[in-house]
Write a structure and sequence with these properties.
This protein is α/β, with parallel strands linked by helices. Helix content is 31%, strand content 26%. α4 (117-129) packs antiparallel against α5 (145-158) and α5 packs parallel to α6. It is globular and about 60 Å long.
Length: 268
């Protein structure tokens, strides 16, 4: 058994009797960054929730460190895997330190109300890793969008999980904070061998940061593999229904969408 792997075998599931995600097979290796891309409604967020055992499956299985997650207590899963949803709710009046402390819940017994010495060390370390130590007494609602995202990332880090599932962590952030969050994730991935599954909308940012990409179309995996192999004009046309031009840059391939020929003025 290889520790901290995440394997999906013919996974199907969703919110009703008709699966939103169908027959997905993927393997996340230790220390890898896998980004999931696809058009709106393609099943990206649903797939992430199925990976984290937050939605019931209708077929197939998810293995975490070689063991199916479907028969494991959620507390045990949370010690290895953390899910950062899109726009998570913020408890009223909670400080950054209190929020991040919630990450230690899976490691404490139900009768423990206060963090023990080990828990406090993990919370302090998570705050430092997310560059939030100086803001630890601030109310979370008073933070900027980028700072809030770092606070929830610190919560996930405090869990001591080695597999992080992040649903559009750059949503509603301007480009400065998008880069700040993604750079922080890359530093953590490389320094601590974290395994990341990240849902993103921005193809160019995905190309810049990912080790591998999975393109989704109508609840299925259309293509998966190394970034350069998956980001082709043919794949992007099939998944997003748009023509693109591709350019090599010092930061990897960049994608430029092209207008539909039929929409161009005559003579163009």
């Amino acid at each position: 058994m290889i520790p901290h792997t995440l394997e999906l075998h013919k996974l199907s599931g969703g919110y009703g009797k008709t699966p939103v995600v169908a027959d997905v097979t993927l393997t996340l290796t230790p220390g890898e960054w896998l980004t999931i891309l696809g058009a709106n409604g393609s099943g990206k967020s649903t797939l992430l929730r199925l990976m984290g055992n937050l939605l019931p499956t209708t077929a197939g299985s998810v293995l975490l460190s070689g063991r199916t997650i479907h028969n494991q207590p959620q507390r045990q899963i949370a010690q290895q895997l953390a899910v950062l949803p899109q726009s998570p709710p913020i408890p009223e009046g909670i400080t950054v330190y209190q929020l991040v402390s919630l990450g230690r819940t899976p490691h404490q017994t139900w009768w423990q109300w206060e963090l023990d010495a080990v828990g406090k060390e993990h919370v302090a370390a998570a705050l430092h890793r997310a560059n939030l130590w100086d803001l630890r007494e601030r109310a979370v609602v008073s933070l900027s969008g980028g700072q809030r995202q770092r606070a929830f990332l610190a919560l996930a880090l405090a869990q001591s999980a080695q597999v992080l599932l992040l649903d559009e962590p750059t949503t509603f952030l301007d480009i400065r904070y998008q880069l700040e969050i993604l750079e922080l994730l890359r530093q953590l991935q490389r320094r601590e061998s974290l395994s990341l599954v990240v849902v993103l909308h921005d193809i160019n940012l995905a190309a810049r940061y990912s080790d591998r990409l999975a393109l989704m179309k109508q609840g299925e995996i259309h293509a998966v593999g190394p970034t350069a192999a998956v980001l082709t004009p043919e794949n992007l046309q099939a998944v997003f229904e748009v023509r693109v031009a591709m350019f090599d840059t010092p930061y990897g391939s960049q994608i430029v969408p092209l207008p539909d020929r039929d929409s161009l003025p005559s003579g163009t």
